């Protein structure tokens, strides 16, 4: 059972996710714990403000908590959607699953499940698309409206650079 003191450390650690990584490091080194809910809340904030979670904080959390702490939190998917190349690379290099499908938040009626590759295509981020493909993201799992694939989705919204990357990867040529 966590004491009042350790619960206070946990609360400070949750707050420090958006601030100084050194403060967060100190709190974690002194017994603070972050659960998936805290990271998921951070991810929801991340969606509204892409710069709110720094790569330094992500690196620290990977070091302290391991990559498993991010499973199901949507951090990879949101970082891909908002073009946070450093965060995407860090998560993938640490072993995050590029094909992890995470349910959209209950308050987001526009989306079903979320894949990082879908987010990168929708966000028009060719560098992130490339990183995901290099790390094994499956273009076959991406389905746009009506079940169309990644190339078709990119053709509609992703811009020419994203379309070219996906065409090279799949060997399919599409009409722009």
TrEMBL record:
UniProt feature coiled coil, ranges: none
Database matches in InterPro entries: Ankyrin_rpt, Ankyrin_rpt-contain_sf, Multifunctional_regulatory
ANK repeat placement: 71-103
The UniProt record lists the keyword Repeat: yes
Domain of life: Eukaryota
Keywords, comma-separated and alphabetical: ANK repeat, Repeat
Protein name, entry field: Ankyrin repeat domain-containing protein
Organism: Oleoguttula mirabilis
Phylogenetic lineage: Eukaryota, Fungi, Dikarya, Ascomycota, Pezizomycotina
């Amino acid at each position: 059972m966590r004491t009042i003191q350790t619960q206070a450390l946990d609360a400070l650690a949750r707050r420090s996710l958006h601030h100084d990584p050194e403060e967060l490091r100190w709190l974690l080194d002194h017994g603070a714990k972050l659960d998936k809910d805290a990271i998921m809340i951070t991810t929801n904030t991340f969606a509204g403000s892409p710069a709110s979670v720094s790569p330094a904080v992500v690196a620290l959390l990977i070091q302290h908590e391991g990559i498993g702490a991010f499973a199901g939190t949507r951090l990879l998917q949101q970082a891909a959607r908002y073009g946070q190349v450093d965060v995407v690379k860090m998560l993938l290099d640490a072993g995050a699953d590029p094909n992890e499908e995470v349910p959209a938040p209950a308050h987001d009626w526009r989306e079903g499940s979320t894949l990082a590759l879908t987010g990168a295509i929708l966000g028009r981020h060719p560098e992130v698309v490339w990183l995901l493909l290099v790390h094994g993201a499956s273009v076959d799992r991406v389905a746009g409206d009506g079940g169309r694939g990644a190339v078709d989705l990119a053709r509609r919204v992703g811009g020419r650079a994203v379309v070219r990357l996906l065409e090279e990867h799949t060997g399919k040529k599409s009409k722009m």
